[in-house]
Amino acid sequence: MERQSTNIKIGFGRQLGFALGESAGQFFFGFWGSFLSIFYTDVVGLAPMVVSIIFVVARIWDAVNDPIMGNIADRGKVTKHGRYRPWILYGVPVLAILSILVWHVPHADAQGVKIAYVTITYILAGMAFTLVNVPYMSLQSTLTTDRKSRGDIANIKGAFTFVGTTIINLFTVKLVTMFAGVDKNGHGYFLTAVLYTVIGVIMYY
Predict the structure, then answer these.
(1) 43-95 pLDDT tens trace
(2) What gap in Å lies between CA 136 and CA 145, rounded to an integer?
(3) How far is CA 197 from CA 2, 97, 99, 115, 124, in A?
(4) Where are the alpha helices (DSSP H) in the chain?
């Protein structure tokens, strides 16, 4: 339980299950970081400078939002699921919805409408990721105080980060192309996002 740390050794199966969350994160934030700017400029039609400004604003807000979320999670009530797990359990559906919405920009002649939609959905998606990822990272310290187990968990998490990143880098372009066919309206990115979201949700749970 999360009420107190215990000096127990964590088995490989449990370490593996926990580390899946690292790969899950890559199917959300890693995918956004590698391809969302391309989608916004090449498909949505926003100017690169506009996209850069949106991303900078989002990062500035993240710098404020992340420690606030960490403080809220740390001070949260301990439930039957522990202190941090409820944030993950209930935050993942919100993250899934917003992760899909950032890849579904409505067609509009007015650039202002697109910019407003992209800004709002991207910042909200980042907040949803924080809502899940910060408690997930905090959960690690509650699993055990056993040094070896903690070291093993850290190593496996690192490996799963690499696996998730590699999958995103190797398969995204192929998937987008396959789903898009001859369509250039962004459906390839959208359907890839749906697939990655499903995979990420399964890994988190």
Answers:
(1) 999 999 999 999 999 999 999 999 999 898 888 777 776 788 889 999 999 99
(2) 17
(3) 28, 9, 7, 23, 16
(4) 12-25, 31-38, 48-74, 85-101, 111-143, 147-180, 187-204
